[in-house]
Predict the 3D structure of the following.
Amino acid sequence: MIGSFIPNHISNSTVAGFLDLLRKVQRRLGIGRRHCRRHVNDNRIAIDRLLGSFGEAAGKRPAPGYLEKQNNYRSIAYGKSDMAYAGCEIIAVYNVLLNLGMSANLRELIEYFEHDGMVFSGRFGTAPYALRDYLKGRGLKVETIFDPDGYDEAALRSKVSILMLYNDSRSIFRKIHTICITKDSQGLTSHNMYGDGRALGPYPDVTHLIRDISGGFAKGIVMFGINV
């Protein structure tokens, strides 16, 4: 079937590289740049309404207020798309920064990746290497792992991780998703997997986490192990 060809016959590094090529074309041509500038103020208002003291972050301070409700973010623009549809990569970066105790501003992250990271003006989300480059630019150490057999050991070496995966390896049309995976004494927890407010976990390792997604048909594309 056409839908299963890419997940099962195209290497993960090739997929990541192709998405990065599209990112670079987007950046060089400045596609949609003027459109992005028009919604900066609207995003500021929408983010404050959704994530401010009366929104998702209410009652979560001083503990990290991980973003888990992506499905609610339709009013936040990202390129020519919106954060509900295409914002999972940015949300994963936001959650990583929170986990590490670093400053995280969703509006600023959106603006940054609109200038360098979008794929097809945001309609296909954000290229994975853009996430890696941003985190390195914040002074973090980032390990890139394409082989799913290496995910578990990489997670053990890392303070926090980002995983990009096929929601269902039987069909590319079920899209790609990106999550933040945090670690504590209980195990690994994935954030914003379903965008409905639930964090999944804890799990003993990444292998068990992936097996619990889409009836076991999810498949990793690339994982970034992140350390300070």
User: Anything to note?
Assistant: DSSP finds ten helices and eight strands in the chain. The beta strands are 77-78, 81-82, 141-145, 160-166, 176-184, 187-191, 200-203, 219-227.
